[in-house]
Design a protein that fits this description.
There is one protein chain. This protein is mainly alpha-helical. It has one domain (about 1-340). It has 15 helices and 2 strands. Strands 1-2 form a two-stranded antiparallel ribbon. The longest helix is centred in the middle third of the chain and has 48 residues, at about 130-180.
Length: about 350
């Protein structure tokens, strides 16, 4: 069973490259759009104002996603199916293009146009936002969606192949649709929101580690900011990566947001300056650097492990059956999970 799940790092890398080169399919034929439509129709049948109904909704949705992932693997093979699923489930190119477009509108002085474009990235009410607040909203979306739309997809492609990628996309889509603290979804969306938090826990922490690697001079500051500020954010994972981005970009993120008329305090993340429209392009570049590193490190580690095993096994007195039998993808997967669990695992109010 484990042999069927593990995937060589080249497959998620190809998938992410396809997303960068090709972008999103047309809406009419986009599988993720079909997924959203299907989940909406399912909700019409399963909705009740209770956690048990939400759990049923989640179970049916995940079961359907697992079936689709298995069919992909059976039809295309493990690596091609992983590459295809990662390409379709990730949206790094669209994220960057949407963010830069809003930044260009702000720089050109088109605040009404930027407000109109903002709902493509965030759920907050843009009506009364000034340019710095629009810029903050975009940068926070870039940070959080670097995990949801890129690094988590790559992670699950590595650890579970197409089935894990599709199930993660189902979970993340459900969280966006029903994981809100509103009268309608407080109970029904509870299970979907909790599962999405659990699935993103390791990818979010690996993303913080990637931030520290692409900005090595700020590595200690990023870690300190994450540990001191991330707890203020209502999302256990969003706070980690937004705090990391804030420090890496020398910005101050967080604050009070309005969602469907409900005010939500997301705390203060970082100690830098308030965001300006020009900072959006910097955030997009940082997200791209993190994305590249996220696929480059497993590829380089895989090559290094293979070279190490080849050198060791070429000396008969050092040969080890257990070393020879240990598959490289499994080694990479184990290493990523371990790093994700320890980096940085503890956040909370600083102790005086």
């Amino acid at each position: 069973m484990l042999a069927q799940l593990r995937t060589h790092p080249i497959a998620p890398a190809i998938g992410l490259l396809l997303d960068r080169l090709v972008g999103e399919p047309p809406t009419e034929i986009h599988p993720v759009v079909w997924l959203g439509n299907g989940l909406s129709k399912l909700e019409e049948r399963t909705y009740r104002d209770s956690r048990s109904a939400g759990l049923v909704h989640l179970g049916v949705s995940l079961g359907s996603g697992a079936l689709i992932g298995c069919l992909l693997r059976k039809t295309l093979g493990q690596r091609p199916a992983t590459a295809v699923s990662v390409a379709l489930a990730s949206s790094g190119r669209m994220l960057g293009q949407s963010a830069v477009h809003i930044g260009d509108q702000l720089i050109a002085g088109d605040l009404p146009g930027a407000r109109q474009s903002l709902p493509t990235l965030v759920g907050r009410d843009p009506t009364n936002l000034d340019p710095p607040e629009v810029a903050r909203a975009v940068i926070e979306s870039v940070a959080e969606n670097t995990v949801d739309a890129v690094t988590a997809t790559v992670f699950f492609g590595l650890v579970g192949g197409p089935t894990a990628v599709v199930c993660h996309r189902v979970s993340n889509t459900l969280d966006a649709m029903v994981g809100h603290r509103t009268p309608r979804y407080e109970n029904f969306g509870w299970a979907s929101a909790r599962l999405d938090d659990a699935l993103a826990a390791i990818p979010a922490r690996l993303t913080v580690l990637a931030l520290m690697m692409v900005r090595p001079r700020k590595a200690r500051s990023i870690l300190r900011t994450v540990r001191n500020d991330a707890w203020r954010h209502p999302s256990p994972n969003g706070g980690l990566v937004e705090a990391g981005f804030a420090c890496a970009l020398d910005l101050r993120l967080g604050g009070e947001n309005s969602y469907r008329g409900i005010k939500e305090d997301r705390g203060t993340l970082g100690t830098g300056s308030h965001p300006e429209p020009a900072d959006i392009a910097r955030a997009v570049r940082l997200s791209s650097h993190v994305s590249v590193l996220f696929v480059a490190v497993p590829l380089l580690a895989s090559a290094g492990i293979r070279l190490f095993k080849t050198c060791i096994l070429s000396h008969s007195h050092l040969r080890s059956p257990s070393l020879a039998a240990m598959p490289t993808p499994a080694t990479i997967t184990l290493g990523m999970i371990t790093l994700g669990m320890i980096t940085p695992a503890t956040v909370g109010p600083p102790v005086a």
